[in-house]
Amino acid sequence: MGTSYTKDKDRQSGLGMACPATRLSLPRKTRNQNGNSVNSKALVIDGKRRVLISGSIHYPRSTPDMWPELIQKSKDGGLDVIETYVFWNMHEPIQNQYNFKGRNDLVKFVKTVADAGLFVHLRIGPYACAEWNYGGFPLWLHFIPGIKFRTDNEPFKSQMQRFTKKIVDMMKQEELFASQGGPIILAQIENEYGNVEAPYGQAGKSYVNWSAAMATSLDTGVPWVMCQQMEAPDPIINTCNGFYCDQFTPNSDKKPKMWTENWTGWFLSFGGGIPYRPVEDIAFAVARFFQRGGTFQNYYMYHGGTNFGRSTGGPFIATSYDYDAPIDEYGFVRQPKWGHLKDLHKSIKLCEEALVATDPTYTSLGPNLEAHVYNTSSENCVAFLANVGTQSDATVSFNGNTYHLPAWSVSILPDCKNVVFNTAKINSQATRLEMRSLNPIPEHQTSKQIIDSFKTLQSDWSWVIEPVGISKSNAFTKFGLLEQINTTADVSDYLWYSIRIEIHGNEPFLLNGTQTVLHVESLGHVLHTFVNGKLAGSGFGNSGNSKVTLEKPIMLVLSNNTIDLLSSTVGLQNYGAFFDTWGAGITGPAKLKGKNFTLDLSSYQWTYQVGLKGEELGLSRDPSGSSSQWVSLSTLPKNQALIWYKTNFDAPGGTDPIAIDFTGMGKGEAWVNGQSIGRYWPTYISPQNGCVNFCNYRGAYSSSKCLKGCGEPSQKMYHVPRSWIQPSGNTLVLFEEIGGDPTQISFATRKTGSLCAHVSESHPPPVDTWELQPQTGKKLRPVLRLECPSPNEVISSIKFAGFGTPHGTCGNYGYSQCNSARAPAIVNQACMGLKSCAIEVSIEMFGDPCSGVTKSLAVEASCT
Ligand code: GAL
């Protein structure tokens, strides 16, 4: 049976089965989309209502060789479903020319998810948003006569339908829908249109209806969702996106309460601080959602990955799309985020049968204190107790027992009696992830020793100077200033605007004899001005306002002068009503200003060049083919704008993920063996203020609540996928736009540093001992667990072990007066030389160093 949703109580037999993460057989060859007419609680798979935990992994943001491990780690983290958008502009960069290869191999990705025994939520869109270039739309779409995006417009609708159908047909052909026995249990049409619908008026409403009918007509046999679309027409399920969705209710009681984007952090912008979201708050939000009747929840992102090439939208979205997700950009589990959520997922799964069977009954336990009980029979009772206050912990009475509820936390009681999990009490270990820097690339091969220790054999740098102004044969002239995206069709970030001015010496706009002021206004995103071949001034916008206005005193010479303006984009707009028409580039005015006179050049004849000479020569794609261009004989030019650099390198040894540290460079794009690792911009520094040393998880989160890295480059490390390089003889090419020193570039590898855990006597026992509880007869206690993340490593040192009231955080734990002297020996004995260890946190184990006080065990260890 395919997936559907229903509240039909007769079909509930056999609920509460093992989570689908462990089940390999998927529904086979039967179709069913009959849930539309009945009340609903949950998605129904194989005839069973399901509680489903989902996580977003966008296939082009990692490489195919990373997919199996990312998906396995997702499964190990307790996910049932992997969610991805479909990125139209990656698949059809040129109209009717498709690309489903490599990172674009959607079918392979879906099958890899299926191979792991997980389900797929396919968000076809085809509008994606997703901080993706142009929201996922291919640029050619913009040039179709009469087209208007995302509204009741025939040219748009026919293209949207064609592409949506193409993807659906492709999935059907491979039998990937659950109705065909495949993993896809859910599909999405459009994306958050409700957020921007109002300005589209009546045509917007018609478009929503059309989208719904079009999607339904494709007959996938699985339900469709529209997120953030209160008026989603039946049978489309409207779903919620946000940091919290417990207050959401779908627009019909026939539809289940679903949360398609729970933001696990936030995206990084060039020029911004690095956002992070504490796991206690994420767990709180998730538990609240299930507490209040939700049955499907998706983490956006579970693994964010990397915006390779020119795929970022924005503008000004950084190349890293790490997102502070449970699996980091490089594929490491981020702890304790991943582990705490894993414990949460197990706890929620213990409640599945009750959650899908009935609606909860709400009781107030006091101000800010809420109990929700799912009671299906005398044996099946599940309770969620919440303290939604932000200030004080509370002790509540419930069913005759008392419970400690920290502020902003939820306790889960799968039997209405014992707490299996509290969102604010972390049992999971933490890991410190580090970038370990390797030697800078030496300018010359001076020392054999450097080469041996680093194994990154360098040849010298060579370079090609990118000409200022017009140098390509495709240049053309036009009167007036042209909007950039309409002119370049985004084939390049760059557009040159060039004008010649003849000066006789008596022009009224000349200040003080020869000096004048150049005034240029641009929609963004970056502007460089050159006068007679020399850089006169630069400016750039930011993620809040991409516009640039430059006003620079310049020196003009008698007779001919050339003013060359280079405008560059940093990812096209991806969000907002009519975002496709917002534009970029120098739309003016562009003026020469004197004391009492202004010469407006805006409507003069300008010469235009789309892209760079080096792009035309293929310097990045085919560095050896273009070898005659590269110079290496004279002194390496440094801190020079508009220059291409090239070098060779050997891969850092081992298998750790690799990054390039671009400290020392300005702004540009980098290619490894012809593959773009993205735009780099280490000189864009985040503001000095706005960061917090300690992020208080209590209270509503917002994207700017918790930032780190203030006053530092927003991004200096750039991921180089291992699969893109060979052990030796790799080529690195850079296009540097504003000037830098390539000899300062270095490699780094991603490593796990210390492991830490800090577990209190007041924490619940591990969730996976829950089932043992009735058998053992004795009260189970909390346990501190450590596990080396890499399979070949064992615990090789215990840096700290304290039982009592140890203080501090991972990396700087300290002892207090209340401290058991036995702790280091016990922990050493239990853990040294092992891949993992578990220690009961109790006074029976460690003795009681201070009675009447709640004690905890803190351990820091390392693995080798
Ligand atoms: C949502 C959108 C996603 C992504 C997210 C922010 O509104 O649906 O695609 O852009 O915001 O990361």
Describe this structure in words.
The protein is of the alpha+beta class and 864 residues long. It has 4 domains: 356 residues, TIM Barrel, CATH 3.20.20.80; 172 residues, Galactose-binding domain-like (Jelly Rolls, Sandwich), CATH 2.60.120; 131 residues, Sandwich (Jelly Rolls); 83 residues, Jelly Rolls. The chain has 14 helices and 45 strands. It has an 8-stranded parallel β-barrel with strand order 4-5-6-7-8-9-10-12, surrounded by 4 helices. Strands 21, 35, 39, 41, 43 and 45 form a 6-stranded antiparallel sheet that branches. A 6-stranded antiparallel sheet has the order 23-33-24-29-26-27. The N terminus is likely disordered. The protein binds beta-D-galactopyranose. Beta-D-galactopyranose (GAL) binds next to loops. The site of beta-D-galactopyranose has 8 residues, from loops.
Give a summary of the structure in a few sentences.
This protein has 864 residues and is α+β, with helices and mostly antiparallel strands. It folds into 4 domains: 3-358, Glycosidases (TIM Barrel); 431-466 and 616-751, Galactose-binding domain-like (Jelly Rolls); 476-606, Jelly Rolls, CATH 2.60.120; 781-863, Jelly Rolls, CATH 2.60.120.740.
